[in-house]
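Chapter review: from sequence to fold.
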Amino acid sequence: MSPIQFSRRSVIQIGAASLAAAAVASNRSSASAAPLNEPQVTDLGPAVVQFSLMSATLVGETLYIGSRNLDPVKIIGLHVPTGRVTRSSVLGTGHSIQTMAADPSGRYLYAGVLQSSTGPQPNLYRWDLTTPETPAQAIGRIGDRDVRHLSVSPDGRLYAVGGGSGTAPALWEYDPATGQVVNLGVPDAKATLARAVAATETTVFFGAGSTLGGGGNVSRACLYAYDRAAKTFTQVTPAEMLPDPSIRDLAVADDRLLVGSAASTEEAKVASMDLADLTSYDIATSIGKTAKNFSTLGEGVYFANEAGICRYSREAGSVEQITLTGPSLGEIWGVARYQGGLLVTSGYGFVASIDPATGASTQTDLTEAGAPAGAQVVMGIAAGAGYVYAGGNGVIARHAFRDRSVLNLQAPGEAKDAVIVGGTLYTGQYNSQGIWAHDPSSGESIKQVATFPGEQNRPQDVCWDDVNKLVLVAAQADTEGGGSLWTYDPRTHETTCRINPIDAQQYLRAVATREGVAYVGGSLQGTTGPGTVVALNPVTGEELWRQAPLLGASVSALATRGKHLYGLTRKGGLFVIDVTTQKIVHAADIRTVGTGFMALVTNRGVVYAASETNVFCFDPKTFAVSVVLADTKGGWYSGSHIVNDEQGFLYTLRERNLVRINDIARG
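The token string follows.
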């Protein structure tokens, strides 16, 4: 893949004044006053500032767009003819809006939210578009934690699907006449996530699979038809889609049901099913790993994949990628028919008006149109060579020390973790994006430098092996189970992918290195173990030894200091292994300072850790725990991070702001 060159809309330079204003809104302080020998803490301001999005629905001439990982959660309305944001509404719960749907009259817009935890709080909202000044109102909740897709039937009933509660997802119905949300049943007890629903007068279609928590005996792609009168489910999955991990999207178009799958080891598929006879369908192999956001225009069916826009021709039984003349669209969250063309909503924060016949497009930058930018939660961070980088959705924010400026670099997906080597940033990029690199001295470009099997889609931890001169990445295979260890040589560009070096169930949550040996830590979907640690030769893949430090606890983080390998578990346990003897020399309960997805780094001869609530460290001799910075409330999306630079400064988050820590007493 060639380097991405950024236009004015795709690179945002945030000057000192703008950064200061954003920081004031986040209660920024310049440097925390501290007594002698206490850690010096400097607030660097919001880590990532943008308007990030996750859904879009066109109602009349207004495109409604749902925010992602912003606080508070909000819907904005872009008036397409004027290119201005003219409406907005704040929702009371959740962190992102992945789905919206309008009722047949166009009066009501429904939205469902993704949440961080289960509970009694609502996750379904309705906005009366005839009185847009009145905020969207909570109307109830589905029992699944996250709402992933909505559909409104012609008679006005709302249907919702989702997941995230650790149980098989159900089909849910909201009746506006009664105000009740009802569970219509679980069609597939082995499914882990439902991301597609579509409703007609008589039938509701439910699409699910194993997008998350794959492997083992969980379901693959499954499509069910729910008879609204008989209240029964019938399995109607096209046979060709059964090997795919999941059904990704559904849409009703006249007398047809459009179906898109998500793939891992193969290409995704698209199908057009006859609503009068679901055994009669046309199907084609698509391009890429996903097929979603269907829209019909003329005789063509248009949809999004990870590379842009595709056209599905039923007559030809084929899919073609549309060649576009504008900028990269990144991750696409909406495709709508509008005035003979397509409106495409990009995760990069703009809406593109596309002529599919020519590929020509014009862009409306949402921030310039009036969308409110805010401090986003952060994926991963890296520090060094005069910069701190923070990964968000579709962006990596580069903070420069010399002038306190921030440059937003567009990058597809999410930089889950990263490392700086010789001044160059190397990221582990989700979803199935491999490794990307950015050299500040070469300008404002970032490029993909390594790819790996598509099912090895979720990088978890990145480190540098200074002996073998390799970037090491621990990864997870969401749909297949297990994971892999990636290696990348920046000099030769050679790569390896060691699949399932622990076993077929544990993914690799953590990787650390010492004297040319890579240590990887295993984790499962829950906090349970076995939490195996394996020592590997990263060049040959040879296993040197393995140890299950704390049975029943998944590994969260690893770091080395001298002959000791430190490890944390998701249940809040510490273990220390003497790698020369492969014996556990220390174990302790540290739940008072952290649990869950934590992080470790060795800095100035001391091992430091970050949890969602604290920064802490371990005495090099006794391994006793000391709190360095308490009550951080880190605004992390997929686990805490802590990194250091060449000067021995530590970097992490306090709420959604980057902070620099100079722990002078211990270093």
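Two observations follow directly from the output. DSSP finds two helices and 59 strands in the chain. The helical segments are 16-25, 366-369.
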